[in-house]
Please model this.
Amino acid sequence: MKLVSFAKSGRGQQARDGTSSARGSSSTAPVRPGLVLTALILVAAVANLNLLVASVALPDIGKAFNAGQVTLNLVAVGFSLGLAGSVLYLGAVGDRYGRKMMLISGTLLSIPACLLAAFAPSIGVLFAARVLGGIAAGMAFPTTLALITALWSGPARTSSIALWSAIGGASTALGPLIAGTLLATFWWGSVFIITLPLAVIAAAALFFVPAHVNETTGRVDNLGGVLSVLLVAALILMINLAPVPDLGTAVIGLGVVALAALIAFAVRQRHAAAPLYDLRVAGRRIFWVAACAGIVVFGSLMGGMFVGQQFMQNVLGYSPFQAGLAIIPAAAFMIGVAPHSARLIERHGSRLTLLAGYFFVLLAFLVMLLTWKEGTAYWKVGLGYALIGTGVGLAGTPASHSLTGSVPVKRAGMASATADLQRDLGGAIMQSILGALLAAGYAASITAAIGSAPHSQQITTSVQGQLTKSFAGAEGIAKRYPQYASQITAAAKESFLHGDHWAYAAGILAVLLGTALVYFMFPGHAQEKSLLAGYHASDLSAATKSRG
Model:
């Protein structure tokens, strides 16, 4: 309904670039704006739904492959890794060679990637399939926001971005619910084919999207693209492998690779004739603060969902369906709050709206840390998800809107890729950090429990390894030794809670740092308008000179 009403507001005279201008309005929109926006949101939903579906299936995947917590973390973060690693490079390719082509290619590639994950014969193949799915999303997802930026302007663009952001966040949150519904009847692989029918519909709907809108003609910085992939991949793998014993050398090596790639990428972007990532634009105050703020906001959503899904199934004993159903408040509040976020931005600016969102995300993590315990009532779980949904619904729109509003249209792909990185890199980093802390806290606590157990010297090294590997490993040992099942399960639950407290504390710290950044560095409403006008005038002047 919102899409239809929005479509009516965009009717007017058709322009040469496929857009129209509403009479008496400062907004412009494409011809058939409702259909175009629907198509773009459907494509984004294919990526968003895939982000968290693995989280609800992790306990079943752990049992199927006898996988440890670190390996499960990699499966959970694999899609985000592929997406975050490729999004800058592939976004630039779309800007140069055709955004619609990338939309269609990425949507179609997601189909075999989903099937490979669903029928993976090993945990390694499953991880690879998830990374491939992320790369497919990297082809399509950044183009959606780039086209919204190019096709809409004024308040219509703000409303479109708000709808894109809200439905995207809600799709991410609804993924576990749909996955849980499937797991009630089917095997763990069924969660990875959720997006197949949606991908087919999205591919058909792309017929309504204009083929070429404000695309660049310069070369693609291929070297910069390779360096960006190397940087993100090394960083995410380093964080995930950090808690694994005996892998210290590998972790240090990955850290060195990430640092070297970062330095090389920065040098390359400063000297390339056509940089992949324009550091001059990225250095604009509104742009870089919004980028960092969005990483924390969307990362908090992903991290909170990732740990929360395992908490509900492992500690509270929820079925996958119940665990998916439990997060509905997050999706509902994200969608409900987003229109208010757009109005807050227009009236009071992005800074106030971001800070309001951060406040609710902080409350969510506090509820998780202080009230999510064994036997906790559902209303406390629902409250935590409602708060984080409200926070992301408020902060998500200004985080994305500030990026697209502070760049020239020819750099829309860069802004879109950065907005995607907020979700994907933020999600990958926060999932990795919270997952690493969860794994480390669990292992430390269960190791202490083993050491203090009666007759601990009789517990074999093999059994200890299974107990410390993951909660699923402890459940397997409990089944092998039913006479000790209650003690083993109780110790595993206590250890999991020990680990998730570490994770939630890290989430609180990240939100506090993000709040301080926005409060001190993001401009107030009047200054924000002045800076954006200055950016626009500078970009217009540069474009005029280049044509002359």
